[in-house]
């Protein structure tokens, strides 16, 4: 299939950059509210309410995964001659090396906490550090790297003809729906006794770090639908043609963007009523991505300017949240409901400052992919 290369500057996605910032800040809120509610901040009633509102902001990783998949397809449409070796090397340097760097940072922080501050048990290191890391949010980078490396040859194969694009695109959408509707936690949790003996799903493996490995498997599975839907959308819809037909800066109209916002609203209502449901977290990510491709978020120029800091914010925020919470606890703030917005605001601002500082210096810029 003949591909017409279109310069990258012909397509602008300020809305997606703004949405990335929204997603990263949503993650800061989720982990801040979850941790504070676990401490009973503001009393049990306030803590339960804040935990429910934290639950509706778990869409960030689904959005990040969908955006990465969609732009993988767009990248290969623009440059179909890109080799797997070049792509894999670039993704490894951009995603896995920062993962290892942050794993080392969080391990050192936990050791400082263990030895000099709270004297909690030492974290320890195991083989799962290679895909789980040393903090509960770092799993996303190995997950994204693995997805991209697997998807690259599949997308390249599909782009050889329109017929393949349609077949693979619909297959990705269907597979994403199946994964979203079939939770993995139950089937994996039932295998924990076998995993402890070195067997997982009947296959003998070296002894693994059970809890971290099971947790990582569950997280990877739970956020795979967003990535699969991003591949499907990218293959079925050539965004370059949409840009050309609209003659504007965004491929979707305001009306379509409002449909995405409405989808988010429906998902928020269900999650507040029912609690954690994987399919709705992924659909929230879809809604945000649709809104991001419309003029609704493209006008948020201020947020878009922070777009390159989003992974840095995501990677740094857990450390910043923990420091802010310790200070808030010592200051006696956790007895009041306003501890939640105050801790979030300080942690969000602190995460932005850390990410910007790291990106500013050439020796640390690699930590903010």
Key descriptive features of the protein:
mainly alpha, single chain
Distance between the termini: 33 Å
What is the chains' assembly state?
single chain
Name the beta content range.
under 5%
Going by helix content, strand content and strand pairing, the class is mainly alpha
State the order of secondary-structure elements, H for helix, E for strand.
HHHHHHHHEEHHHHHHHH
Per DSSP E runs of 2 or more residues, the count of β-strands stands at: 2
- Radius of gyration, CA atoms, in whole angstroms: 21 Å
Overall pLDDT confidence: 85
Label the overall shape. globular
Low-confidence stretches: 1-11, 186-207
Strand order of the largest sheet: 1-2
Characterize the main sheet. 2 strands, antiparallel
Number of helices: 16
* Overall helicity: over 70%
Describe the structure.
- This protein is mostly helical.
- Helix content is 71%, strand content 1%.
- Strands 1-2 form a two-stranded antiparallel ribbon.
- The chain starts with 13 loop residues before the first helix and ends in a 9-residue tail after the last helix.
- Mean pLDDT is 85; it is low at 1-11 and 186-207.
